[in-house]
Design goal:
This protein is an alpha/beta fold and 312 residues long. The chain folds into 2 domains: 5-115 and 292-299, 3-Layer(aba) Sandwich (Rossmann fold), CATH 3.40.50.2000; 135-289, Rossmann fold (3-Layer(aba) Sandwich). 47% of the residues lie in helices and 12% in strands. It contains 14 helices and 10 strands. The chain has helices at residues 5-13, 22-25, 28-34, 48-56, 63-86, 95-102, 145-165, 180-187, 202-207, 223-230, 239-242, 258-270, 272-289, 292-299, and strands spanning 17-20, 40-44, 89-92, 109-112, 135-139, 170-174, 192-194, 210-213, 235-237, 253-254. It has a 6-stranded parallel sheet, with helices on both faces. The chain has a 4-stranded parallel sheet with strand order 1-2-3-4. Strand 8 (210-213), helix 10 (223-230) and strand 9 (235-237) form a beta-alpha-beta unit. Helix 12 (258-270) packs across helix 13 (272-289). The chain starts with a helix and ends in a 13-residue tail after the last helix. Mean pLDDT is 89; it is low at 305-312. Keywords: Transferase. This is Glycosyltransferase family 4 protein. One of its GO terms (molecular function) is glycosyltransferase activity.
Length: 312
């Protein structure tokens, strides 16, 4: 790409260059050599070294893969240190990631951006009633190892307790790319729907009673939890699933133990009125913090070629 003179010319004329996701941010050192006068912004959707370190220390992962994750952690730290030296601005999605990336040193200005998550399908307020059929919703790209692990843990250790306690409850696993193992495990349960890819998740959010985020692996802000809050759903998460979401008491429960996680889901399903106060507070906070308007205000603060704040 950087060998194409038309691309290089466009980069030289740009007010700034924005690189999204870690694999693309790795281009920053080359960009700095090619277009030294253009500010370069790297958007870190997560701090990947944290994901590798977490995977290396999790017993749910087999020993060989834990060792490989430890090697990847070491390389990721080296890469992150280099990137924060050459970037003008590093954008992260949470204060937790700002602190993590700040430990790498360097001269980049590290700023926290709210991801714009609102859309026209979302309701103007939390739904007033309760769904006719109790429905537990887990949304994820299931080709990602951390989401597959979460879904398998949910099916194997949490779902049996929920199903036994709440007659007629349904579990929806909504998202693209489920692998053969997840398809096989989900297929064993008549009350579990594994959707695969769907063009819109709106119908699944509308029919859900509670959203769950049972992640044990990964890093960064789990946007699935925020989106569920913006749909007016109470959210039950693990500490990893809640990581980086700093709203004032916005989760119905946070639990890492399977039994406690199941108990929290059961409580929300049996008595949704008790979760309504938290749900309503989370709805307001998430819409205030993760709107397109909030994102545009943050975008205006990024430096441009002139070194001044660009306003459009």
């Amino acid at each position: 790409m950087l060998a194409d003179e038309a691309v290089v010319s466009a980069l030289r004329e740009a007010d700034r260059v924005e690189l999204q996701w870690f694999d693309t941010v790795l281009l920053a050192p080359r960009l700095r050599r090619v277009v030294p006068g253009t500010p370069v912004v790297g958007v870190f959707h997560d701090v990947v070294s944290q994901a590798h370190l977490r995977r290396s220390s999790t017993r749910a992962v087999d020993p060989l893969r834990r060792l490989l994750a430890l090697v990847r952690f070491v390389f990721a730290v080296v890469q992150e240190r280099r990137l924060v030296r050459v970037l003008d601005t590093a954008v992260v999605l949470s204060e937790k990631d700002r602190v993590l990336l700040g430990r790498r040193g360097g001269g980049a200005d590290i700023v926290v951006f709210p991801a714009p998550l609102d859309d026209d399908d979302m309701p103007p307020g939390p739904p007033p009633g309760r769904p006719a059929v109790p429905d537990v919703l887990f949304v994820g790209a299931f080709w990602r190892p951390e989401n597959e692990d979460a879904a398998l843990w949910l099916l194997g250790e949490i779902w049996p307790e929920v199903r036994a306690a709440v007659p007629g409850v349904r579990l929806t696993l909504a998202g693209a790319g489920p692998g053969p193992r997840l398809e096989r495990e989900a297929g064993r349960h008549r009350d579990v729907e594994l959707t695969g890819y769907v063009p819109s998740l709106a119908a699944y959010y509308r029919r859900a009673s509670v959203a769950v985020c049972p992640l044990r692996l990964g890093a960064g802000v789990k946007l699935k939890g925020l989106v569920a809050m913006m749909w007016g759903l109470p959210v039950v998460a693990t500490r990893v699933g809640a990581e980086g979401i700093s709203g004032p008491d916005v989760f119905a429960a946070v639990a890492d133990d399977a039994a406690r996680f199941a108990a929290a889901v059961i409580e929300v399903l049996r008595d949704p009125l008790r979760a309504r106060t938290v749900r309503d507070r989370a709805f307001r906070w998430a819409h205030d913090t993760y709107s397109a308007a909030a994102y545009l205000r943050a975008l205006e603060r990024l430096p441009c070629r002139t070194g001044e704040v660009r306003r459009e």
